[in-house]
Amino acid sequence: MRLFLSSYRFGADPAPLMSLVGRPGRVGVIAAAADAWPRTARTSAVVSDVMPLTRLGFTAEEVDLRDYIGDDGQPRAAALRQRLDGFGMVWVRGGNTFVLRAQMARSGADRVIPELLASDSLVYAGYSAGACVMTPTLHGLDSSDDPAEVVATCGVEPRWDGLGMVGFAIVPHHPPAELPGAENAVPLEDVAAVRRTIDALRLAGIEYRTLTDDQAIVVNGDRTELV
């Protein structure tokens, strides 16, 4: 299993991701975390991720999970698996973690992606919401992401379980504490949301790891490291 889980895109350096992937090839961009956004904002978000991937040599194209939800509301998991079979990597952007989780369940991505990871057929790269959804729980993330957007966007109730591909929660966008005055460079409301998430995880006794926007967690087989 190969995972690249970051707070913001490539972190400080894309080299760890490139080492995990090898030669850049086709990558499917999943922007389901932005499904609650206005259409123009969502479209811009996809473009903003495709461009840096293209500069690294990837051939990037969107995989819209909404295309794999049947008219009857059932997942079209077989069709999604066939689509993802053509990619060496999926890139899962940030946004609302609860919306992303719901769309993964509705499309069958929460089954298909772990299966592809287990067979090492795919690299999973996700940042912010895309990283958080791979953990055991979304507990505490309601400090920054609104679970109510799930009902409005997806027509289902929010889920609080992640895919459990790592054994700890992830708290992204943590201020780099080793830098004097670092918190002043981060909007105060974001700092407060991070603190509330950490407090909720501590109170619940859930193991977690924080990530600054320069950091990422890389999983390669049995090895997990912070880069």
Description:
The protein is of the alpha/beta class. The chain has a single domain (1-224), classed as Class I glutamine amidotransferase (GATase) domain (Rossmann fold, 3-Layer(aba) Sandwich), CATH 3.40.50.880. It is built from eight helices and nine strands. It has a seven-stranded mixed beta sheet with strand order 3-2-4-5-1-8-9. A two-stranded parallel sheet has the order 6-7. α3 packs across α5 (109-118) and α4 packs across α7. The model has no long low-confidence stretch (mean pLDDT 94). GO terms for molecular function: serine-type peptidase activity. Keywords: Hydrolase, Protease, Serine protease. Pfam families: Peptidase_S51 (PF03575).
The CATH topology comes to Rossmann fold
Number of separate domains: 1
What class do helices, strands and sheet pairing give? alpha/beta
Gap between N and C termini, in Å? 17 Å
Total number of beta strands: 9
Topology order in helix (H) and strand (E) letters: EHEHEHEHHEHHEHEEE
CATH superfamily: Class I glutamine amidotransferase (GATase) domain
CATH class placement: Alpha Beta
- How many alpha or pi helices? 8
Rg over CA atoms: 17 Å
Say what oligomer this is.
Answer: single chain
Which word captures the global form? globular
The CATH architecture is 3-Layer(aba) Sandwich
How much strand? 15-25%
Residue-averaged pLDDT = 94
In short:
This protein is α/β, with parallel strands linked by helices and 227 residues long.
